[in-house]
């Protein structure tokens, strides 16, 4: 009983838990969009989306796209009857869920969608860098401030990103046992493929101006001794690095800044968002996050698992319905073919009787 009450309380208090289900009809080929509000209050925010055509014909197909408030595509399907997906997001605001009928579909299609958002934990502090630049071997005395370009050729980085955060106004008291500090980065472009490995290293001492020339010894190999972690992320998604211990050490030592270097360990070419020409939610950020109760994370995992299970069940039901329709269509054809065959056989028999009777009557 106590476990049930705990689960009930966690479901009620789960931060960022939000769900909706809506049924509607498409009567034209014009795109029809709906909006759902999302408040991305933690580092691990997930959007869960499922859609389907109710009682579809075999030729009823729709194109579906989910866009974030910056109108970037989060999920997309072309020519589908039902599907579902889970995606990590960083941006708060109104997400657009857009549907369009495919050519040749029924005049009226009834659809449904199910939208859910899970965010376990809550931020107590967000830091935006006062410096986010690209240093390049090809331009050793110049820094690029728009975005952070990461390029590695034959195992040697030739373009790297530098991020520096100001810690002057941050108090040590903000850190507690249940607090984690994370560095969030978002990938804007990848030259080849959809995935890239991003590595993070600590720059032990701030250098100004930040150029390849000033950091040449560090950029050409010294960074390897200060690598913190690396992670694989996909295009448009974000990666989170846990920097709690480093952050706490900097505060304990009363240091004014913390500076990181990012690069790609493999021979890849990618762009990471900086602090220009993009929504603030995609800036590099250090967030101080209260993880909350462990039970809430378990409930969030449970909700996501249930959502995925319902999606799998919907897909199985859809395939079963399509198989049933195909079987019923085949049975209908067999029935009509049987009826036609029987009519032909009866006609042949009747014709034979008439023919033989006419022969007998003619005195054969």
From TrEMBL:
<keyword id="KW-1133">Transmembrane helix</keyword>
<dbReference type="InterPro" id="IPR009038">
    <property type="entry name" value="GOLD_dom"/>
</dbReference>
<dbReference type="GO" id="GO:0016020">
    <property type="term" value="C:membrane"/>
</dbReference>
<comment type="similarity">
    <text>Belongs to the EMP24/GP25L family.</text>
</comment>
<keyword id="KW-0732">Signal</keyword>
<keyword id="KW-0472">Membrane</keyword>
<dbReference type="Pfam" id="PF01105">
    <property type="entry name" value="EMP24_GP25L"/>
</dbReference>
<feature type="domain" description="GOLD">
    <location>
        <begin position="31"/>
        <end position="117"/>
    </location>
</feature>
<feature type="signal peptide">
    <location>
        <begin position="1"/>
        <end position="19"/>
    </location>
</feature>
<protein>
    <recommendedName>
        <fullName>GOLD domain-containing protein</fullName>
    </recommendedName>
</protein>
<dbReference type="InterPro" id="IPR015720">
    <property type="entry name" value="Emp24-like"/>
</dbReference>
<keyword id="KW-0812">Transmembrane</keyword>
